[in-house]
Structures
1.
Amino acid sequence: MENNEIYKVGLGLWKLPKDDCAEIVYNAIKMGYRHLDSACDYGNEIEVGQGIAKAISEGICTREDLRITSKLWNTYHAKEHVLPALEKSLADLGLTYLDSYLIHFPIAQPFVPFEERYPPEWIFNPDSTSPEMQTAPVPLHETWSAMEDLIEKGVVNKIGVCNYNSGLLNDLMSYSKIKPAQLQIESHPYLTQERLIRLATDYGIDVTTFSPLGALSYLELDMAEQTDSVLTQPVVTAAAQRLNKTPAQIVLRWGVQRGCTIIPKSSNLTRLKENISIFDFELSDEEMTGISNLNINKRFNDPGNFCEAAFNKFYPIYD
Ligand code: A2P
C-alpha cells in the first residue's frame, strides 16, 4: 500500500458492539488500518480508546500514524457545549487531540448533561410516557464558530461537517473563517451524490462516504431489505469475476477510485482484511461508469424517514 492510500479506507465504528469493539479496533490497526471514524453517538468511544491504546503500547503504530475522527452530537450545538463535548470524546478515547472533528448532523437538539445521559441519542425524554425527539433553536453558524475555536486551541487538526446538502455547504463557505476540511455523507452506487461531491471538491473539501456498501449497513436496523443490496448487480459481479475480487471489494474500490475516502465497518476479521485490500487492482473506465449508472438516489440514512418512524418527529433535512 502506498503511504497515503492507508488513509483512504477508514474503519467505521458505528454499530461496533461494545463487547468486541476494543479487540476489533486493535486487530484492525494490527492488520493495517490507520484511519478510525468514531463518534460520541456510537456509544463505544471508551472501547475504541482501549483498542488504540493497546496497539500503541505494543508499538504497532504511534499516535501520529493514526487519523482519528470524532463527531459533535446534536445536543451539543450551542457554543458553550462544543468544547466540553470534544473534551468528553477525547477523555473517552484516551487522546489529547483529534485529527478531525465533524458536526454529526445539521440538527440542533436540547442540551442533555453528560451525567444525565451519555450518549444522549435522539429522544429528549426517553423515560416519559410520550418520548419524542426535540429540536433546539441553535443556528449552525454558532456551532461552526465554536468548532473554529477548537482549531485555535490546538485540540483538533481539522474540522468539518456531515450530512450537509449543497445549500448548507454553500452557506457554510460564505461565513466560515476556517473552511471545512471534510464533508462526510452517505454515498454508494445507489446514491452517487455526484453533484454534491463535485461541489465539495470544487471548494477543496475532502469527501468521506459512509455506508459505502449501501444497504448492508441497514439490514440489522430493519431499514433495508436484502434485495436492496448492490452486491448482486451484474456490473459488480462481472468486475468481481474479471479481477478475482469479491463484489464488496469492487464496490469499495469504486468508492475510492472516484476520489472519496470510505469508512466501511466490519466486525469480522476476514471482511476487515478484504476491505483494505483494494489497492492492488483498478476498475476500467467502463466498469466505473457502469457502477455509477446504478444510481437511483436511494438514501438509507434519512432523518426525513427515521426521525418520524422511530422518534415521533417529522424532520426532513435533505428535501
Ligand atoms: P459485518 O460487520 O458483519 O462484516 P457500514 O455501511 O455501516 O460500513 O456497514 C457495513 C455492513 O456491511 C456491515 O453490516 C458489515 O457487516 C457488512 N460488511 C462489511 N464488509 C463487508 C464485506 N467485505 N462483505 C460483505 N459484507 C460486509
Note: Residues 144 and 161 are 9 Å apart (CA to CA).
2.
Amino acid sequence: MRLSQYFLPILRDDPKEAEIVSHKLMLRAGMIRQEAAGSYSWLPLGFRVLKKIEQIVREEQDRAGAIEVLMPTLQSADLWRKSGRYEAYGKEMLRIKDRHDRDMLYGPTNEEMITDIFRSGVQSYKDLPRNLYHIQWKFRDEVRPRFGVMRGREFLMKDAYSFDLSREAGQHSYNKMFVSYLKTFARMGLKAVPMRAETGPIGGKDSHEFLILAPTGESEVFFDKAFLDMDWSAFEIDYDDVGAVSKVVEDFTSKYAATDEMHDAADFERRVPTAARVNGRGIEVGHIFFFGDKYSEPLECKVQGPDGKMVTLLSGSYGIGVSRLVGGIIEASHDDAGIIWPESVAPFDVGLINIKAGDAEADAACEKIYKGLSAKGRDVLYDDRNQPGGAKFATMDLIGLPWQVIVGPRGLKEGIAEVKNRKTGARENVALDRVVERLAG
Ligand code: ATP
Ligand code: MG
C-alpha cells in the first residue's frame, strides 16, 4: 500500500478524551474514530489489525474442533423470555421494537439463539459432541464505556457454545477451549493467565477468565510469578487426546491465580512463596464457562440417548474479546514512540520510508523493494509522500510496524538501505538488492 493513496489520519497531539495509552495510541495512529459513547468506526489501519486477530482466533477455534456459524446481531425477545433473561439482563441490554411493535434486542451474547439452533438441528446422541461459534458484534449498554475499544458498547466477540451428552464429555469440551485459548493468546504475543472466576447463580461449575497483565487493567489480580515462566506456546496438542488436554489444564490451574473477586489471601500466602507473589492489574480478554443445562432445560434442547431416553444437553460458552484485544495488545506492547506490533497481528509487515520521495534514484530503489517484498507476500506500507524525513520516522514508529526499511540519499550512494527492527531498535545496513531477501519472511 502506498501511503500517498492510503487513509491514515494521524493525530499529532494526544487526544484529551483518552485516559489510557492504548486508547491514545489507537486514536493517534488513525486506527479508530469514536462515533458515539463506546462505539467506534474501524479505520483502515485498525481494521487490518482487527481482522488479523479475528483470523488467529478463528484458526485456533477450528483447530480445537469448533465449527463457525454466523448469527444475526438483532434477536427476537421470544427466546430470551423462555430462558428468563429478557427481564433479568437489565439495562445493559439494548431493547428495540420493530415496525410491527415486536420486541427485539441487539444481542449482548447468544446462548439462547444457539441453543435453539442446535435443538432444531440435532437428532440423536450420535450428533454429539459439537461446538459452534461465531465472531459477531455485540452490544451491551455499559454504564461506563471507557478506555476506547477496551470497554465499548458495541464490540466484536468470538463466542463458542459446546453441546454434550454427559458431564465428563462436557469437561473435555471445556478443556479443549481452555487449551485453545492459551494457544490463541500466545500467538498474539500474550500470556493470558487463566484465573478461576465466579460462576454466578448456578454455581459449582467451571469458569475461568483469561487476563493479560497491564497496569491499566480493570481487575486486580493475584498470582504466582511461576506462571510467567511456563511454556505458553510451544506445546503441541492432540485435541482428541482427553488425558493430554486435561493435563495442560491441570498444569495451568495448579498455581495460584485469582482476580480480586475470587482472591483468598490466606490461600495465596500458603501456596505462593513471598518472592513469587504478584499483585497487579489485568485485562480480561477471554472467559469460559460451563453452565450445564441452564439454557437447554428451558429451551428443551434434548436428544434421544443410546438407551432411547431423552437426554437434556449440557453446554458451556466461551468468549474472546476480539476488539478488546486490539487495545490489550497495545497495552502490553508499546514504548514512548508508539505501538510495537507483534508480527502476527501487525497491520503491515514492513514500513518502507523513502526519505527523498520525488528523486528519481530514490523512487526507483524504493519501487524495486516495494514490488519485490509484495511479490514475496509481505504486506508493505510504502511512505512515498513528499514530506520531511523526521515526520515519516515518527509516523512509522507510532504505527509500530515490526520492520522499517529506510532509503535515503546517503545510503543510496553506497547502494544500501537501513533496516530497523521496531521492537529492539536494532538497525542494520543491507545492500539494496538484498533487502527483499532479508525481509522475505
Ligand atoms: P467484563 O467483566 O470485562 O465486563 P464480561 O465478563 O461481562 O466482561 P463476558 O460476557 O465474559 O464479558 O464476554 C466475553 C469477553 O468479551 C470478555 O472476556 C471480554 O474480553 C469481552 N468483552 C466483554 N465486554 C466488553 C466490552 N464492553 N467491550 C469490549 N469487550 C468486551
Ligand atoms: Mg467475563
Note: The pocket of adenosine-5'-triphosphate (ligand 1) is lined by residues 140, 142, 151-152, 155, 157, 284-287, 319, 321, 323-324 (CB under 6 Å).
3.
Amino acid sequence: MSSIELVPGLAGIPAAESSVSFIDGQAGILEYRGYPIEALSEHSTYEEVAWLLLYGELPSASELAAFNKDLEELRVLPDALVAMIQAFPKTGHPMQALQASLAGLGMVSPKVNIKDADSRDQAARRVIAATPVLVAAFERVRAGKEYVAPKAGLRTAENFLWCLDGEAPDEVAAKTLDCALILHAEHTMNASTFACRVVGSTENDPYTSCSGAVGALFGPLHGGANERVLNQLGTIGDISNVEAWFEGKTERKEKVMGFGHRVYKTKDPRAKNLQILATEMFGKLGNTPKYDVALKLEQVVTEKLGSRGIYPNVDFFSGLVYEKLGLDTDVFTPIFAMARVSGYCSHWCEQMLDNKLFRPAQIYKGEREREYVSIDKR
Ligand code: ACO
C-alpha cells in the first residue's frame, strides 16, 4: 500500500510559486501581475501586457517604444525558417506546424544562456515577436500563397493580419484582435503553462519550452475547444434546435464545448470581455446567425448546468470573433497560442530564476519481480 494519495489531474496541487497572474474561480477574477484583465483589455495594448507579464510593471512610454522596436526586429524570420515552413505538409494542422516552427525558431536563433538575464530576455522577446509571423506563414503556405514578411511600423495584431493577407489591416479587426490577444495572454498554471515549465525545468530554452506548451494547448480539452465550439454552433444551425440538441448531448453524456472550467465555477471573466468585444464588433461589421445560437445555448446550458458551476469559458466567444475576422476555424487555437506565448515566456523566466527539475512521483499499480519467459515459450 502506498502512503501517497493520487490526485487525478493534480487538481488543486500547487506546482510552483508564481507572481505572474492571479485567479479566483469562485468570484470570476483574473489579474495579470495584480491588474484586473478588464482594465487591461480596456486601456492597454497587447505589447504593454506582454511587458507587464514579463517584467511585473506596466511599461513607461519610452520602455514601450523600445520594446516595440525590439519586437519589430525580432519578428523578421531567417530565410532558413521560412523555407522550413514552406516545406511542411499542407495537410498538417496549424498547431502542429506551430509546434514544429517554434522548435525551428530555436534552431536559427542564438544559443540561450539561461543564467544570463539579457540572453533569457532576448529569447523570450523573440518568441513573442516571431510566433504570430510563424502562424501567418503556415496559413499562407497551406493556401498555396507566397510568404508575406512582417512590415515595420505595425504592432503585433496589425502585423499578423498583414502577414496573413499582405494588405493594410482593417482598423476594427486589428483593435478587436489586439484585445483578444490581451484576454488570452496568461492564465496561471493551466496544462500548457505547466508543460512549458516542465520542459523549461530541464534547463531548456523558451523555444523548446513553448513548443512543448503548444503541444499541450492543441488538445480538445484545452485550447482546441474554440475550434469545436464553432463547429458545434454550425451543427446546431438554428436557435430553434438548441434545446433538442442539448438534450441529445445530455443523454449521450457528452460535454458541451466552450462550457466548464477546472477553476472557474462562474462565467469566465475572459468570456464576459470577449462577449462585449463580439457585440461591439458585430455592431460595426454586421451580425452573424451563429451568435444568436450561441446566446440561446448559453441560456439553456446555464439554466441546466449553472448550479453545478458550468458556465461559458474563454473559448465560447473567441471563435465567433475570429470567424467574423475572416479567419479559418483551425487557426483559432494558434491565435490563442500566439497570445499565450507571453504568459509562457513569463513563467519560463520565473522558472529559470528558481529552477528545480520537475520529477513527480507515481503510484505503481503493476506487477513485480516476474520471471522472464523466453520467446519460444510464450
Ligand atoms: N458540458 C457538460 N458537462 C460538463 C461540462 C460541459 N462542458 N464540463 C464539465 N461537465 C460535467 C462532466 O460531465 C462531469 O459530470 P459528472 O460528474 O456527472 O461525470 C462534471 O461536470 C465534472 O467534469 P470534469 O471534466 O471532471 O470537470 P473539470 O473541472 O475537469 O472540467 C473541463 C474542466 C475539462 C474544461 C470541462 O469543463 C470540459 O471538458 N469542458 C468542455 C471543453 C472546453 O470547453 N474546454 C476549454 C476549457 S478553457 C481552456 O482550456 C482555455
Note: The pocket of acetyl coenzyme *A is lined by residues 221-223, 225, 255-262, 305, 308, 310, 313-315 (CB under 6 Å).
